[in-house]
Amino acid sequence: MKPAVEQSFIVEDWQPTYALLQMQGSMELLKSLEQDADLKQQMRDIMAMLSQRCEIRAIQADRNAPNLDLTMVCTDWRTGEGLSDEGAYRRVWYNIRESGEAALTQLMDPAGSFCEEQKILLARAITRLDYDRVSSGGIFYLQAAYWKARRQGMYENEGNRGKER
Questions:
Q1: 140 occurs within a structural domain
Q2: Of 3, 7, 81, 107, whose CB is crowded by the most CB atoms within 10 A?
Q3: Domain count, the chain
């Protein structure tokens, strides 16, 4: 286990955000089961590193979103560009997904803080979409991040001005 944890400190910048989310999920599970205090602390440090990287990714996704048609539909993968790297839809699909993945990764860090700026970015990522026209499965990551934040006491009365049921 120790070599795997040590290797986890080395995460290349080019790794996609979903890989950081998966790694955070692994660390969350392993940390809950680990008995060795030193390894547990290293896992906490890795989780903090992943959270910090995802803060930057959430900011970048928010900056990119206004330049994308978030209502674009993917072409048929059998006859069109689908999700190919060259296709225009991939940037739309990934932007929606990355917004949720970056937030969720941060929210999985029990020692982390989901600062006010990140709360605003998540709320903006959720509310900027036209759910009658969005085709990206990334909405599920946005929902997961929202409900994780709610369980942590965020967004309790925002928007409803105390009219929560």
A1: yes
A2: 107
A3: 1
